């Protein structure tokens, strides 16, 4: 099974909202077995050969938001599990960093072709909006775990967010 090492960024604005992107991936199979459909996820993606996790996190923030002024904090979460794309099962290992921006301004000007095809929207979410949402959001337990991150409460070790 192929492995995908990735970074995700819990990108926060001064109001404590998190930036998520809505992805429409018609060839992805979700954890509930549904093929295709939209979902929301954090900023991030796969690391490039020879790239550190921190460098990948900063690069992904720039590519997906146009911002190169992210204040990147430590890794706080991790997730591991299978994902199925075009029928191929891939083991994903994701490290989640916390990052802060001084403003809400973001841009899609640096999206690559795949992002232009798959990403449909960027949106800032409050914790209450996450908790009330019926949309598919990854990681599924983000509304439960995010308040500690926003409050700056450190836990011992990385928190496992599952798949």
Strand content of the residues, in percent? 35-45%
Please write the CATH class name. Answer: Alpha Beta
- Overall body shape: globular
Which regions are unreliable across 5 or more consecutive residues at pLDDT < 50?
none
In CATH, the topology is named: Nucleoside Triphosphate Pyrophosphohydrolase
Please provide the count of β strands: 8
The helix fraction, in percent, is 10-25%
What this model shows, in words?
By secondary structure, this protein is an alpha+beta fold. The chain has one domain: Nucleoside Triphosphate Pyrophosphohydrolase (Alpha-Beta Complex). The chain contains 4 helices and 8 strands, in the order ββββαββαβααβ. Strands 1, 2, 3, 4, 5, 6, 7 and 8 form an 8-stranded mixed β-sheet that branches. Strand 5 and strand 6 form a beta hairpin.
Features:
163 residues; Nucleoside Triphosphate Pyrophosphohydrolase; alpha+beta; 21% helix; 8-stranded mixed β-sheet; single chain
Characterize this entry briefly.
The chain is an alpha+beta fold and 163 residues long. The chain contains four helices and eight strands.
Q: Could you outline the blueprint of secondary structure elements for this entry?
A:
Layout: E1 2-12, E2 18-24, E3 28-29, E4 38-46, H1 53-65, E5 71-85, E6 88-100, H2 113-118, E7 119-125, H3 127-132, H4 142-150, E8 159-160
Parallel strand pairs: 1-6, 5-8
Antiparallel strand pairs: 1-4, 2-4, 2-7, 3-5, 5-6
């Amino acid at each position: 099974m192929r492995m995908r090492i990735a970074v995700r960024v819990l990108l926060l604005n001064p109001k404590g909202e998190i930036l998520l992107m809505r992805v429409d991936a018609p060839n992805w199979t979700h954890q509930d077995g549904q093929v295709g459909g939209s979902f929301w996820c954090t900023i991030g993606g796969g690391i490039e050969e020879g790239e550190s996790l921190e460098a990948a996190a900063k690069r992904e923030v720039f590519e997906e938001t146009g911002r190169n002024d992210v204040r990147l904090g430590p890794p706080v979460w991790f997730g591991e599990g299978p994902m199925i794309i075009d029928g191929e099962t891939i083991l994903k290992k994701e490290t989640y960093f916390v990052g802060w921006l001084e403003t809400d301004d973001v841009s899609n000007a640096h999206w690559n072709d795949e992002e232009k095809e798959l990403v449909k929207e960027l949106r800032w979410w409050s914790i209450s909006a996450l908790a009330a949402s019926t949309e598919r959001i990854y990681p599924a337990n983000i509304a439960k775990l995010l308040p500690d991150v926003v409050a700056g409460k450190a836990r011992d070790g990385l928190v496992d967010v599952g798949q």
